[in-house]
Amino acid sequence: MKTKMRTVIAACFVSFCATSAANNEFNQAYNSFELSTLKKDIKTLSSDKFEGREPSGVGEKLTTDMLIKRFKALGLKPGNGDNYTQAVPMVSITSKPTTSLNIADLDFEFPTNFVATSRKTKKDIALTDSELVFVGYGINAPEYDWNDYQNIDVKGKTVVVLVNDPGFATQNNQLFNGNTMTYYGRWIYKYEEAARQGAAGAIIVHEIKPASYGWNVIESSWTGAQYHLPAKEVNEPAIDVEMWISVDKAKALFAKAGKDFNEMKALALEKDFKAVPLNLTASIKLENEIKSSTSNNVIATIKGSERPDEHVLYMGHWDHLGSYIADGKKVIYNGAHDNATGTAGLMHIAKAYQTLGKAPKRSITFVAVTAEEQGRLGSRYFANHPTIPLKQIVGLINMDSLDITGKKKDVTVVGFGKSELEVYLEQAAKRQIRTLTPEQTPERGYYYRSDHFSLAKKGVPALSAGGGSVWLNAEEKQIGKRVKGDVARCYHQACDEYNEAWGWRGLIAELQLFFETGYLLAESNDWPNWREGTEFKAMRDEMMK
Predict the structure, then answer these.
(1) What are phi and psi of 55, to 5 degrees?
(2) Which of 290, 312, 338 is where one domain is finished?
(3) What is the pLDDT along the chain (545 residues), one digit of tens a residue?
(4) Is the overall model pTM greater than 0.70, yes or no?
(5) Contact of 240 with 202, CB cutoff 8 Å
(6) 249 and 315 assigned to the same domain
(7) Per DSSP, what are the bridge partners of residue 87?
(8) Are 497 and 466 in contact (CB under 8 A)?
(9) Are 70 and 347 in contact (CB under 8 A)?
(10) What's the CA gap between 54 and 63, in Å, rounded?
(11) CATH of the domain at 101
């Protein structure tokens, strides 16, 4: 393997693209995606029989068996030694409040306006008269000369935190990344930083725009069993109690403290913001039901014909939210769009590669990961225990919720400009007469919310793209108008169901696009890197020395 990093130059493979366009075998593979089979697979994966594809449940066995059977039938080799699976140890914690959240005489109702969970593997967890401190956005970022915890001791206390970051709140490009969310805006960072500061609890104030989703997502995602990696697999600290409250309750809380919520928000936008003790206390008791379990990543490989030790990765998560009982009835979160589409896509791209007369020069490895919905647990475990040395992974293409809203003239790149993998995506898009465009809602921080981020944090160049903003024609736009509202409304809801009315031409085009992107990369000699100024470049440079 060549370990010297080489800059990707588009001209290096423009001639190759022209050659591949005329290559009958490539064209046959490119056009091999069968809509009827794809529909059948997505419908099966999102059927009630699979019970929402919850990790360690009945749905896992059905899903992983389906993946392994298909990969074997296609002739793919096991991707973890002699095994198609990689066992992922997990701990599930179901936190049940045995008391309500008690702050002054405010009336909190679980889960209507507050939720509370714990990552601690203790049966009983409590906050007792824990002092509340408003710490603004709860960010400690030396590179931005920003520290909301400066000159305040929050040990044993409970911090109240705003969601997202000051850049989004001000739309000022001189603050953080302006409208584009940084990792400092993500809820997981805020809980982790609170723990690093010694806090016992943290309350994040939910607001729809900066969070990028409604309270219904909090309610569905933060109740029931929450899965985690075992403590030995986690480097980040944890607080005792993690909470969200609705913005209406936050306003009432600040009023009880003699403060105006909007005024406090405005103060938090200044670099010299100083944390504000609220002279209130919080108390709550949780009872944790703790279970250890094992789930599985599924890994399969097409061995490269010339450089088998160099791998192009396709990744997608097979799991969703499972089911629960409400009013005596079972409610199943089937996750048809998120992510039966990407799971089926892995199998169909694998089929396209096997349609080629000869394997690509580099190996192609498919990784269907578990527990993305629980905090990217499967991909994080894979990143910690890679079945391929990370420096031998040339690049990663992640497929999470493929485009079902109609065929587009452009391709949206999440985290636009981060990596040189975009050069390959751009070349593949030319076949479909499409151009690359940045995501329209960078404030939502999507780059930090899916499995590719687990490997990006380790330095591996990772691509997240799909969909677009300009429909191909009036017919596709009409499909988009019909489907797009359902996509937003049904995110992490029981209504994310298979639908014949989806924009299937767009979904097929997306699979073809990802297939060719990986194929170009697999046939190339180049080692694409992160672009200058990207937070992951130094790690990749060090890895590849």
Answers:
(1) -55, 140
(2) 290
(3) 434 344 444 444 443 444 444 488 999 999 999 999 999 999 999 999 999 999 989 999 999 999 999 999 999 999 999 999 999 999 989 999 999 999 999 999 999 999 999 999 999 999 999 999 999 999 999 888 999 999 999 999 999 999 999 999 999 988 888 888 888 998 989 999 999 999 999 999 999 999 989 999 999 888 888 888 988 887 778 999 999 999 999 999 999 999 999 999 999 999 999 999 999 999 999 999 999 999 999 999 999 999 999 999 999 999 999 998 878 889 999 999 999 999 999 999 999 999 998 999 999 999 999 999 988 999 999 999 999 999 999 999 999 999 999 999 999 999 999 999 999 999 999 999 999 999 988 878 888 889 999 999 999 999 999 999 999 999 999 999 999 999 999 999 999 999 999 999 999 999 999 999 999 999 999 999 999 878 899 899 999 99
(4) yes
(5) no
(6) no
(7) 296
(8) no
(9) yes
(10) 10
(11) 3.50.30.30
- Residue 201: domain span: 92-290
**What CATH number has the domain bearing residue 497?**
3.40.630.10
Whole-number Cα distances in Å, 318 to 61, 343, 520: 11, 5, 26
**How many domains are contained in the chain?**
2
End position of a domain, from candidates 243, 259, 290 = 290
How far apart, in whole angstroms, are the C-alpha atoms of residue 534 and residue 530?
Answer: 6
Q: Please indicate, yes or no, whether residues 392 and 534 belong to a single structural domain of this protein.
A: yes
Q: Are residues 265 and 176 in the same domain?
A: yes
In this structure, the answer to whether residues 257 and 148 fall within a common structural domain is yes
